[in-house]
């Protein structure tokens, strides 16, 4: 199983890390590590998550974030990592602007 994290998802992760680092020293690093651990779990669990907005959605175990991904063959493509505290319409819009 291969996992590909797209630029849009990396940008989301970086923005979340900056936000949490402002909350307290080291929290941003913990956020980053936690989300990457969740993403790594897709090697075993890709495809079992509920589909939302046309993507599989993995809910983070430690933070109010969701990992939106597609699963085709042996490739998992992580499209976005979005904050679930935001307006769902904003997340839907962020997901609808994907380009392959």
Keyphrases for this structure?
44% helix; globular; 4 helices; 100 residues; alpha+beta; single chain; five-stranded mixed sheet; YaeB-like fold
Q: Gist?
A:
The protein is built from 4 helices and 5 strands, in the order βαααββββα. It is of the alpha+beta class and 100 residues long.
* Tally of individual helices: 4
Radius of gyration from the alpha-carbon trace, in angstroms: 13 Å
CATH C-level class is Alpha Beta
Q: Order of strands across the biggest sheet? A: 1-5-4-3-2
Total beta strand runs: 5
Secondary-structure content class:
alpha+beta
CATH topology: YaeB-like fold
Shape type: globular
Second rung of CATH, namely the architecture = 2-Layer Sandwich
CATH superfamily: RelE-like
Distance between the termini: 20 Å
Measured by DSSP, the beta-strand proportion falls in 25-35%
Binned, the helix content reads: 40-55%
Element-level helix/strand string = EHHHEEEEH
Secondary-structure map:
Blueprint (H helix, E strand, L loop, with lengths): L1 E4 L1 H17 L3 H14 L1 H4 L5 E2 L2 E5 L5 E8 L2 E9 L4 H9 L4
Q: How would you characterize this protein structure?
A:
Helix content is 44%, strand content 28%. By secondary structure, the protein is α+β, with helices and mostly antiparallel strands. The chain has one domain (2-96): RelE-like (YaeB-like fold). Helix 1 (7-23) runs antiparallel to helix 2. 23% of the residues are buried.
